[in-house]
Design brief:
Elements (H helix, E strand, L loop, with lengths): L1 E2 L6 H18 L29 H10 L5 H10 L4 H13 L5 H14 L14 E2 L15 H14 L31 H4 L35 H43 L4 E5 L1 H13 L11 E5 L19 E2 L12 E5 L4 H11 L11 H4 L3 H4 L10 E2 H6 L8 E4 L20 H12 L5
Length: about 450
Amino acid sequence: MLVHGAQNDEAVAGATDGAFREMLADAWEDAADTAGFLGVRWPSLCFRDEGLWGLAEHETDRERKACPGVSRAMREDLERQLPRSASPLAEIVALLNDEPSHEGAFDDLGSALRRLAETPLQDPMNEFAADTEGEVLPQTDPLMLFEDTKTMCSEFAAALCDLAGPAEEKPGEPARTESGTRDSDPPASSGGTLPEARVAGHRPATPLSNRVSTTGTVAAGGPVGQDRHLQDAAYLWRGAHELFRQVVRHVLRRRAGVVGHAGLGPCLAALAQASGTRIHLIGHGLGGRLAGFALRGMDAPGSDSVKLASLTLLQAEMSHFIFADSLPQQVTGHGALWDQRQLVAGPLICTFSHLDTHLGVMYPLSAQMVGDSAELATMSRKWGALGFDGIQGIDGPPNSTLHDAEERNLSEMPYTNVDASSLFRSDSAPVGGHHHVVHPEVGRLLRKAAESGAPK
């Protein structure tokens, strides 16, 4: 069962499902009658400049050339999937298309973005805004919505410039363990604290952008500095488009948690109970967050215990501490799914890529919370994504490559981090290798996960 975020319309969603179905059909070519495929539909979208399945290359190029403007097709996607936000969407799209140069335009943009993302104080949706729980001062409001809008536009514009070079010139080689590296490998990261060195997952030696390697927040005097008002208007509006994308992603991440917990989770439990079907859940991108929170929906009080046969998270868009039972940079707190591993009978696999620029740079910038602090950890460490450097904050085996994972007994490991940086890579900013996940090696990994721990 596959859940992903490219649900713009039936054509895009169907083409995405079709790409995964073809990959799985090739992997099960000699045993096609032993597995079935289901795609999950939910109200989500990806921006059309990200290189989506179902869009011809010239359509993607047209979307990228229109930036910071928003095309008619993209506006229709937004109105379709965010029907209650028609008014702020119309204002945001008009500002991005017109690129006004007067100072107040960015204040207008910030106001519209906040209206797009706002929810009533007691709305249950707010419970799904964060991937960690139990902190002394929990927060659910992202800093990007409440910091000076022009500052945030400049921050995202500068991050885009950091990613503008070709892939071979970018930092971010596949991960290494802290010991036993080959002579040919670049040095492993020496950052982090001693407790962090004992848990699974290592960061790339050099970050994709220095913006995510600093401590503190944008509000605490990040790389923007006092010259933010001297930036060129076109430069700032390019950053404004990326800020808009990240605010939309924030809204959809929050929605993914709700849909997973209240929708897909109970559905999976009922399906497993009624049919005895072994369910292997695959979540990509935003769908990875939905798939993760579906575990909480399966664990409903008073219901019989049912389990997924396996869970595979492909470039999942949620915190790398989502499964941690404690947070290295906090006195209290844990990941939102820290106690949900028990609901997966077989392998729980997380792929990651250090060349997924969306999760490596844009996600940490957009995931900072109001009133939070990262004085003892870099921005990418505290607000890093699962799909960039794997599951963190848990004791486990060292990272695997796709080839290594094919050779291992996946059912013996509580979690398996799979470094797919060699395949999930692209020089297209701002998402990089985020959508480049359909490969024969991935199909074989999914079959291996399905067959691990299966009844003999």
